[in-house]
Amino acid sequence: LTYPWRDVETQEWLTCSQCPPGTFVQRPCRRDSPTMCSACPPRHYTQFWNYLERCRYCNVICGEREEEARPCQATHNRACRCRPGFFAHAGFCLEHAPCPPGTGVAVPGTPSQNTQCQPCPPGTFSASSSRSEPCQPHRNCTALGLVLNVPGSSSHDALCTNCTGFPLSTMEPGGPGAEECERAVIDFVAFQDMSSKRLVRLWQALVGPAAWGPVAPREGRAELQLRLWRQLT
Q1: What contacts 24+ positions apart, CB below 8 Å, involve 23-27?
Q2: What are the backbone dihedrals phi and psi of residue 217, each rounded to the nearest 5 degrees, phi first?
Q3: Domains of the chain as residue ranges with CATH
Q4: 3-class SS at 226?
Q5: H-only helix segments in 82-146
Q6: Taking a C-beta distance cutoff of 8 angstroms, is the pair 32, 60 a contact?
Q7: Which of 69, 141, 146, 217 is most buried, with most CB under 10 Å away?
Q8: pLDDT by residue (tens digit) across 186-211?
Q9: How do strand 13-17 and strand 2-6 relate by DSSP bridges?
C-alpha cells in the first residue's frame, strides 16, 4: 500500500509506502530512503495501514452499565459491551427482563439480546419471576406415595397431601394428621383456579379488608395466590 508525497526539499512527487496497523509515519519517504514508521505510544492506536503523522487516541470510555470487552491496544480502540444482566438496545444498556410467573426462560439474555420467555406448556410451571429459570415439571404425587390435592398450573406446582382424615370436623385438634390436613385445606383454598378479583374477595371474606392491604398494579394472580397462602399459613 502506498500514498503520494511531495518532498519538501526537492518538490518532487514520490510514491511512499504506508505504515502498518499499530504504527504511524515518523518520516515520509525520500528519493533515497523509505518511509520511516514508529510504534504508537501508550493509549494510542492505528487500526489500518495508514500515512498518519500521529496515532489516534483511545477515546472510548465504558459506561456505568458496561464492561471492557477489548482493551486499548496499538492496533485498535477500546471496545465495550453491556455488563452481565444487561443488553444493548438503541445505544443503551437495558436490564434483562424477567420472565413472569407462568412463563419460563427459553433463551437467557445476552449482552446483545433480551431474555426470551415462553409460556409454560402443560405439565410444567414457573412460580416466580426469573431471568434464568426455565419451566419446571409438576410434582408427581403418586410417585411420592401421596394424593393430589391441587392440580398444578402454569404458575404453581402440583400440591400433594397425605391427609386421609376428611372431614376435618371429625378430627381432634392437634390429633394425628390434623396439621397435615389443615395445610391441605389451606393449599386447596389459596390455589383455586379463580380470577384475581375473586381472590381478593376471598381474602377479604376470610381475613377482612384491612388485613389485605393495597394490591400492586402489576400483581398478577400467581402473586396474589402466593400472598394469600403465606397469610393463611
Answers
A1: 23/55, 23/74, 24/50, 24/52, 24/53, 24/54, 24/55, 25/50, 25/51, 25/52, 25/53
A2: -55, -35
A3: 1-82 (2.10.50.10), 84-137 (2.10.50.10), 139-209+216-232 (no CATH)
A4: helix
A5: none
A6: no
A7: 141
A8: 787 777 776 667 666 766 666 666 55
A9: antiparallel
